[in-house]
Amino acid sequence: MQKDKIYKTALLSAILAFLFFPVIQQQFKFVNLKPLSGAYIPKNYCSFSPESWLNESYQNNTNDYLNENFGFRNFLVTLNGQLRFSLFNKGLLKVVVGKENHLFISDYIETYYGKDFSEAHINDTISKLKFLNDTLRSLGKTLLVVLAPNKARVYPEFIPDYLKQEVTDKTNYSALLKGFKNSGIHYLDFNQDFINKKRSSPYLLFSQLGTHWSRLEALRSVDSIMGYLSWLTQTNLPRIRIKKVFLKDSLEFPDDDIAIGMNILFCPAHDKMAYPEFEYDTENKVKKNVLVVGDSYWQDIYFREIPKHLFATNEYWYFSKSSFGNFYFGTKEISNRDVVRTILQNDLIIIVCSESNFRNLGFGFAGAAYSAMKRPVYPTVNEIKKLKQIIRDNNNWIKEVELKALKRNISVDSMLSEDAAWAFYHYGPVRLKKTVYDIKEEMRKNNVWMNEIRSKAEKRNISIDSMMTLDAIWAHETLPPEEKETRKLSVNDIKHKIKNTIEWMSQIKIKAREKNISTDSMVTLDAIWFYNHQD
Fold first, then answer.
1. How many domains does the chain have?
2. Of 82, 278, 373, 485, which has the fewest CB atoms closer than 10 Å, so is most exposed?
3. What's the whole-number mean pLDDT along residues 57-78?
4. DSSP string, 58-73
5. Single residue among 32, 53, 88 that ends a domain in this structure
6. 176 and 268, same structural domain?
7. Higher pLDDT pick, 13 / 366
8. Burial, 88: exposed, middle or buried (Cβ in 10 Å; 0-12, 13-18, 19+)?
């Protein structure tokens, strides 16, 4: 009897402990769990107030917050994902498990079978792109549309049988091809390119566990884009030279992006993938400015800094919502950008779009550019002033201006204004060079960057402003020379000078103690001050 009581007590204790483990984990985080993958907006806890209680927002918010933050949630989500995959060959959300462990996103299968076909949307897009193409051509600029490959179209044999349907030509893809050919819009069709290539390629063009072109094929596709642009512009643009291709057992991102997004415990079985060793062929090549408006097919290419080696400046408008560029820092909202001036500053405009997004090709960019370019745009007085100074600083250009002014019997300044206006309409406003303080101003407007700054400042036990300065110096040093405002001495030159000046270093140590920061941080702050007060 006593034994039964002990067993029952032990069992009850074990059950209670099991039930309380999530609560303990939620409060104390005694087990480090891997965060979940995928994009989502985390729920924040809202404090109680009589108003929030009466309108039930407190109850709803608290319920959502607890559902998302209870102990071991991440592990249980991944366990659920693993069980669905291992036992039922199913993926979470839009993941489709195909034959031989080929994973698909359902949107790509649906668009392959024409489920999202809209002739009206395609005709409207073609009309706007044709106007933009003709306008850019008149300004000496080039528009190129890149149709990224669809894994479902390239490898339809791996689509599971229960999803297979009759293939139709009433798809957004077919309609776009027809529209491009009739309107004279330049495009590259990587769907057909990949279908042709898979017959002879010894390597998979898409990883079994990914939705984007493989890292090798992404690189080859970028080189194809550069080759086609060279032909279109009759310019010797930089290229990519692949030196060697090797096979790897482990996958590099984004070759495993669907598997990561599935949030499962173990990576599914997969074949080896090919990865390249490559170099950039830039000697005696011409680099142009480029604006790429694209979806995630360009994302990995951009963040691997491949375009940085191929173009003079490059800007990437991700889904035409956020913009990234190698001549400014952080992320900018497209709503804050002047579409016309951005277009005018670039020689090449490339739209990269995958088939699941063809219905919304350009993600609103075509419409915004169409509306903006329809309206007359005038340079400001300040923009003309800066362009006139550039002309004056160019000996050949100013001589041409003086000669034209003489022939037309007008003043040199009038002729300068005309040439400056011409330059504005063909090259856009002058891109301003940046100082460290310009970068700090950009930081203040970027919430994501400022959150990182605060976190680093707390870890280093220095002020937020000091951390901003340190980050701004690093960012300034990484700018290309043509975008960097330089003076007699660089920040690093001044720091070296400080460290080799005994009297200066003595003052640095005193100030560092007073500010309760490291000596090196104080050296940097003094160097910045000196940098910005040089004659």
1. 4
2. 485
3. 63
4. HHHHHHHHHHHHSTTH
5. 88
6. yes
7. 366
8. exposed
Which of 34-38, 223-227, 471-475 is most confident?
A: 223-227
Distance in angstroms (rounded) separating the CA atoms of residues 413 and 89: 74
Return the higher-pLDDT residue of 190 and 95: 190
Question: What tokens does 143 get?
Answer: 């528009």
494 residue type, one letter: I
Looking at the structure, tell me whether residues 186 and 324 fall in a common domain.
yes
Phi, psi angle pair for 47, to nearest 5°: -70, 155
Q: Give one word for 488, left, alpha or beta, with left for phi > 0 and alpha for psi -120 to 50.
A: alpha
Would residue 198 count as lying in a domain? Answer: yes
Residue 369 sits in the same domain as residue 395? no
- Domain assignment of residue 215, yes or no: yes
Predicted pLDDT of residue 486 = 46
Both tokens of 90, joined, read 């199913």
Element (H, E) at 325: strand 322-325
Per-residue three-class SS string for 121-176: HHHHHHHHHHHHHHHHHHCCCEEEEEECCCHHHHCHHHCCHHHCCCCCCCCHHHHH
At position 507, the amino acid (one-letter code) is Q
DSSP 115: T
pLDDT per position as a tens digit, 428-482: 888 766 666 667 777 777 777 888 888 888 888 887 877 887 877 777 666 555 4
Question: Does residue 105 fall inside a structural domain?
Answer: no
Do 140 and 239 belong to one domain?
yes
More confident residue, 90 or 326: 90
Q: Which residues sit opposite 248 in a β-bridge?
A: 273
d(CA 349, CA 373): 14
Same domain, 496 and 466: yes
Domain match, 325 and 456 both: no
241 shares its domain with 314: yes
Q: Which two tokens stand for residue 128?
A: 């706007």
The rounded distance, in Å, linking the Cα atoms of 302 and 36 is 24
290 and 146 both lie in a single domain: yes
DSSP alpha helix (H) spans, 29-114: 50-54, 57-69, 73-88, 106-112
pLDDT per residue over 483-505, tens digit each? 444 444 566 667 776 776 666 77
- Band (pLDDT 50/70/90 cuts) for residue 69 is low
Q: What is the pLDDT of residue 188?
A: 97
* CA distances from residue 241 to 9, 87, 224 in whole angstroms, order as listed: 71, 45, 11
Q: Which residues pair with 145 in a beta bridge?
A: 187, 351
Confidence of residue 517 (pLDDT cuts 50, 70, 90): confident
* pLDDT at residue 535 in the model: 45
Exposure string (b/e) for 429-440, b if CB count within 10 Å is 16 or more?
bbbeebbbebbb
CB 430 within 8 A of CB 387: yes
Within-domain flag for 58: yes
DSSP string across 232-289: HHT----EEEEEEEEEESSPPTTTTHHHHHHT-SSPPP---EEEEEEEEE-TT----E
Structural domain harbouring 408: 381-427
